[in-house]
Structure formats: structure tokens, C-alpha cells
Amino acid sequence: MIDTDAIRSAFAALADEAPPSDRIRASLTIRARRHRQRRLILRLAGAGTVAAATGVAATGAWRLTQPPASRFPVLHAGPGGGWLEVPLRFRPAWLPRSYGEGKRTVIVDGTQAPVLSRDWQPGTANQAISLLIGWHPSLDPDRPSGRPTTVDVNGVPGRLVQVADQTPGTYLTWQPPGQPQLLVSVHTDDVADAQQDLALRVARSVRPDPEVTWVGPRFGWLPPDLATVPWRLNHGFEDTNWTQEVAMSDPGGRQLLISMGTSAAMRLENTFATTPIRIREWSGWQVPEMKQLFLTLPDGVEVFAQLDDGPGDEQAMPTLIRIIEEFEFGPWPDMSWIGGR
């Protein structure tokens, strides 16, 4: 059995032996610069993930020492519910053996949720089969490009594209009469022909799903340039911890990420932040040069937030603090669906 207190004590000991703060700040700056070159957006139907510029190399090294998950953890997050109900609408009736649901993503535009993405994986995130339900203009830059092949999906013509780039995968798009656009994407270790066969079998098995998911968090205030931008809510897990992320990126490249959950890795990161801060009744740390906040809420849930405006924006940190001050976290999500078929 894993002893949580022992792990945290080990983290604290590691922090005591950390290198000088100047060297840490330099490392943070370098890693932040690298991450600023990445867009904080969802790649189509789970092809990638939103990444935060945490800047702590020790966290990555610690994770590499952990054995890969052999099964899905049982997660007890919260009661679920929220201000916006999102119908799941569809799910595959067939998936390869050992695959379970590992991630849900909702695009929120105003008071609507026009897009839902669901990912199934074999216990770890190295491979994934995803179902994207609906479409939104914010996804247009990430539309898969390539020579399409016309296929049949239960009597409906579909468009199959295979992409061989840094994240090779197979994408199959079709639209049943009177329904939103559906897209199955397959990112596995299989060869192209096997991926195509897998995408077709999964797509042809898609059936209605009467269940719902929820959007709990929402913004109380945003600066004008972000106030009308659609944003993404990601639900998932890492190791044995549940995670919930809110992310947005405006056309000018301004990026906001708020990550919540029970991540032990965040506690390690917090030990390197040097300036304490108190927001409402929450205690935490800030790293102004990184435009980052780390907070621990009264129930023990940890929060990481970053507003990435690029170098030289002196208003980024006050803006981020106000966003968090007025942010409504909502009820913590129900994560009992993790690992389900």
C-alpha cells in the first residue's frame, strides 16, 4: 500500500536538498520559454493534451521511476453536477479488450457545449481511441489534413484520413442524418492498415448514450480579450489522482490554464515557489516571472494557474490573481466513469 504521508515527507526532504533558488529560477525561465511555443489547446479528439509550464525537472524524473498503471484507479473526486449539463449522446458499443474511458473534454462557448470528446485507453495514455461529437470553429486549425478515402459507416459516407506526423493517427469523420458530426480517431502502435480497420470497427459500433456529464467550474471575471473566447474543460486522471483542467487560448496567443486535483506532484512544485500569497481564504505561492499561482484549497484540492502573455507583460500577474479571486470552482467532478467501457 502506498503511504501518502511518507511520499509527501520524501518530497519535503527533496525540497530541502534542492539547488539554489537562482538556478531554479533560471530553469523555470528556460522551460517556460519552451512551453510558450506550444498552444494550450486540445488536439483533435485526444491526439494530445494541454500542458502547463510547471518548470520542475524533479517532477518528471519522479514520474519516470513509477511503474506504468496496470489498471484504472478507483477515483473519489466529488458529487458531480454543475451549472451546465452536457449529454454524452454517443459511445462505441465495441472497443478492444482492456480499453477503458480515461478522459472527457467539453468545449464551452457562452452557455452552450457544442463539442464533447471522449477518450478510451488501455490503462495508460500512450494509446487512445477517441470519439469527438460535434464541431466548433476553434477546432478548424487542427482539422486533420491528408488525402481522404471514402468509406461506408452503416450506410453513411465517411471520410478517412491517415496522418503520419509527430503524432501519427487515423481519423474517420461522418455525420448520421439529423445528428452532429462524429469523428473517431485512433492513435495506437498499430500499422496504418490495422489503425484503419480499428477506426472502421469502432465507428460502425457507435450507438446512442443517454448519460450526461457536467461542467462545474466557470469564470466570474475575465479580461475583455478573453471574455468571449470559448474554453475547454478536461476531466481525467494521472497516476492515482483525479485532474480537472480549464484552458483557453485567444487568437493573439494569450493562454490561460487552471488545473485542479489531488496531485502529489503539485506539492513538490509548490516547494520551489518563493513568494507566498493569500487569495480569499486560500494559501499558496506565486512565481511572478512565470505568471504562475499554486494554491491549496481548504479541502486539500490543489490548484495550479498560469496566464501566459509572453515576456514583458507586467499586468499578467494582477490579471491572473483577479481571475482566480472570482473563479467559481463548482462541485468537484464525479470520476466514477474512469475505466468504464
UniProtKB/TrEMBL annotation:
<protein>
    <submittedName>
        <fullName>Uncharacterized protein</fullName>
    </submittedName>
</protein>
<keyword id="KW-0472">Membrane</keyword>
<feature type="transmembrane region" description="Helical">
    <location>
        <begin position="40"/>
        <end position="62"/>
    </location>
</feature>
<keyword id="KW-1133">Transmembrane helix</keyword>
<keyword id="KW-0812">Transmembrane</keyword>
